Amino acid sequence: MGTLVALEGLDGAGKRTLIGKVETELRRGGTSIATLDFPRYGKSIHADLAAEALKGSHGDLAESVNAMAVLFALDRAGAADRISELLSANDIVLLDRYVASNAAYNAARVHQGVDGEMVAWIRELELGRLALPAPDLQLYLDVPVALAEQRARSREAQDASRQLDAYERDGGLQARTGELYKQLAATNWASPWWIVGPETDPADLARRLADFA
C-alpha cells in the first residue's frame, strides 16, 4: 500500500507546478507515483456545481458555507475508490488539495480557528462519515498572500477559462485561509505536516518524500 500525501496551499500558490517537478524527480529516482487534483472540475457533478455557484449560478448556494463544504466533500468521496486503486499500485499518491482545504477555507469563511466547530465538522464528515482515506502526510506550500493573488490574476489574464471565482477574488478570505493552514500544520491536523516555501528545491522534497514513504 502506497503513501497518501496531500499538498495544500492558497489559490495561486504554485501547487500544480511543484507537484509536476516533484513527480518528475520521484520517477527519475525509481519511486512510482500517481497524482490527483481536487476539485475534479469537469469530472464530478459536485465539483462543477460548486464552481458554478462560486461564479454566480444556482441562486444563494454559494452563500451557504456548509452546503459548499458538502459539495467539495462529495467530490472527494466520489474519488475514494480511485484513490485506493492508486495507493495499491504506487509508492506515493500525491494530491493537489484534499480534506484540509475544506477545513481551512470554510473555517476562514466563518471566522473560526483550528479549534472551532467547522474544522471538527469537516473532519468528521470527510474522514468519518464519508470514510475517505486519511492522509499519511500533508504539505503546506506557504506563499505570501500577495504573491498568490498576483499569480492567480496573471493566470486569469492569460487564460480566459481560468476566471477567478468568489473565493479567489476575496483577499481577506485568502489571508484568513493562510492562517488556518498554518494552524492546521502546527497542530498536525489529521496527519503529520511539513511546511514548504516557494524556494523549495523539488529534488530535495522528492528525496524527503521517498524516504518518508
From TrEMBL:
Alphabetically ordered keywords of this record: ATP-binding, Kinase, Nucleotide biosynthesis, Nucleotide-binding, Transferase
Listed GO biological process terms: dTDP biosynthetic process; dTTP biosynthetic process; dUDP biosynthetic process
Origin: domain of life: Bacteria
SUPFAM superfamilies referenced in this protein's UniProt entry, alphabetically: P-loop containing nucleoside triphosphate hydrolases (SSF52540)
Its EC number(s): 2.7.4.9
Main function: Phosphorylation of dTMP to form dTDP in both de novo and salvage pathways of dTTP synthesis.
Protein name per the record: Thymidylate kinase
Naturally occurring in which organism (per UniProt): Rhodococcus erythropolis (Arthrobacter picolinophilus)
